[in-house]
Amino acid sequence: MTGERFGSTPPDRVQKARGGKAGQLSGQGCYMTFTDLGLKAPLVSRLTGLGMSKPTPIQAKAIPHALQGRDVLGIAQTGTGKTAAFGLPLVIAMSADTARPAPRGVRGLVLAPTRELATQIVATLQALSGDLRISLVVGGKSINVQIKQLARGTDILVATPGRLIDLIDRRAVDLGQTRFLVLDEADQMLDIGFVHALRRIAPLLGKQRQTMMFSATMPKQIAALARDYLSDPVRVEVSPPGRAAEKVAQSVHFVAKDQKQALLIDLLDGHRDDRALVFARTKHGAERLMKQLERAGFAAASIHGNKSQGQRDRALAAFRDGTVRVLVATDVAARGIDIPGVGHVYNFDLPNVPENYVHRIGRTARAGRDGRAVAFCTSDEMGELRAIEKVLGARVEIAGGTPWTSAREAAKTPAKRRPRRRPGRRPAKKMAA
Fold this sequence. Notes:
Blueprint (H helix, E strand, L loop, with lengths): L2 H4 L4 H8 L22 H9 L7 H11 L4 E4 L6 H15 L9 E6 L3 H15 L4 E4 L5 H9 L2 E6 L1 H9 L10 E4 L2 H7 L2 H7 L8 E6 L4 H10 L4 E4 L10 E7 L5 H10 L5 E5 L3 H13 L4 E4 L5 H13 L4 E4 L1 H4 L7 E6 L6 H8 L9 E7 L4 H11 L4 E4 L6 H6 L21
């Protein structure tokens, strides 16, 4: 594939033709078509064939800067089109350079926190690129097969940090000629604990490189990561950090711990035709809840750390095709999964990390559809709920029950004190008449 075939018109040339400045958004704050972004006709035609008729907001904001070679820090929720936002500039740059990768070499590296997300990224890049060599290296797959794939060189390598470190230790991959780096779902990579892996990987890349980082939230750790790995980046965002998707109707039920299962079954029973994603805090809790839902007559499956990759793949496939209507998941297992048509997200257990709530409810209301996010709050989860509301910048609407009084709030409320008797004094006895 050549740069002429799938190249781009420089953004400054596009804007000069319109009398604007490079990188300036046309219309009402965004480009209306991919042609406006500077993409050439063959690539636009391919996008149209994939059902992508116009860029999403994050694509419209990120692609012009990326095509100019700038480092980009993108703040956007899962499901907003981030993969194409970095994938299109990556494919265009690779196509314009006819050089092939050296044995074990990698021209562009995309890091993702989970196997599921990495697999989805590869599928998107393959659809966009045509004949570029794109490799996937993740845990749960044969490392020997991956070593053989990397031996001939790779245009774009999509990897989870842990497996990439394994391959680096085996000297199966050479990142010295890597000129493009993408960190997707960066906040979740930090949450999982991949920061040490990132610190090992980054120095191995070429010094003259373009880096793009995307995150759904912007905690202090992400700002620090951006300072370490990005050079004079352009920051683009389609919603304030921590803001939930606009079309998600959020609500909370205050419920006793031993009543949560009955409430969930009752709510699920009212929407049996909908796909529902249920979040539990622990692996054992997710599996136990899934079995309880099966006994209640629901077609349910679960994904969590105790499941093999094959089991997780089968559960996700069944959820996508509708064979399974209820999927119970932990935060780690569900990171990055993109399943269209999820009508309800249930927070059976509130997350310890408030930003994870934003990730969870972002699984519904995709592609302009409406969605509902329902949270259960027990008496010992009031602290988690208040932390979530602080991140959201708003209170979650109460759908049932009465807010619990947290231990901290109870401590501020003076208790009624009973009169104290002085030591050594007893009430006087009545004397007989």
